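2024-03-11 09:14:02 INFO queue: dequeued item Zn-dependent hydrolase, including glyoxylase, len=329
2024-03-11 09:14:02 INFO validating residues
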Amino acid sequence: MFGLEIFKPVSIVFSSVPITDFMERIKVHLPFKSPEYSNVYIMGEFVIDGGFISKEKAGELAGEIERLGYRIDSLTFIITHHHIDHIGILLWYDIRAIMHPSENEFLLFYTNPQHFVKPYLEWSSRYGIDLEMLRPLAEFFRSGSRVKGEANSLKKDFRIEYETPEGMEIIHTPGHSPGHICIYIPKEKILFSGDLVLSVTTTHIGYYPGYGQDPVGDQIESLRKLLSYEIDEIYPAHEDTIKNAEQRIHELIEHYENRLEEVYSGIDGICNVIDVAKNISWSAGSFEKLDGWNRVLAISETLAFLKRLVKIGRVGEKEIEGVVHFTRS
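2024-03-11 09:14:37 INFO prediction written
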């Protein structure tokens, strides 16, 4: 998703709605143009995701949860992935949280961003990315906090006991992030999809330091994995409840496959990643119209699709003066 306006000043609004007889949703408005809000779901002793990273907004979310009659210290937060609009309460409160082990290192983005300076400098140099473009990225992840919650790592796929022996199934769905997870409740045939499946927009997939070598392939495979589940409704981390689950999953797979072809068509001779990014379409229009932060997202997304094309043998890599270039095979 593009169009982020970093820390745009808006008031934080909470809208708590009981959406089933066993679940409530808190819609947390975010300081972005897009996405506008993040969904936090409460089911008994479990909460799906933890809102935005700032201390103020984490505090307001905690207050809203307690206003609904829950005690923060008696809940278990299941964090779908490490991004800033999902882990806020984990940074500021002593809570019990569980997340995939592949996400743990990325919490250092918020507590010790210097940990990532060297890999990001190497990444920008290798792919010819102007260091000035990374300045918004550095500011974006600097919360000035420490991780206060007790973050227990998940094993590969496992079930949490919840109401029935079938419980919840934690599904590892990498792509958007290396340790992204979805939560499936067989009894209700519902899925909490995090950012994997959204009702309107498509999820950003980027090639970043520490991520997998083929995040686009991972994302498509994760979507296909969901097709093996019987799902009546999907509750995403943003946007609206999805009633046509299978159809929406197929639409997203088709979108990523079509995007792959567009990126392939954007390779004109021997190109670096920025050349290709300029040759394909973006929601804001042309690459030149994107601001600095969104250019970082656009470049990393283009790079992710190029890496997928390299993996399947349709594109080759060539290093020219220390910068990786791409050409059709």
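2024-03-11 09:14:37 INFO annotate: The chain has one domain: 14-328.
2024-03-11 09:14:38 INFO item closed
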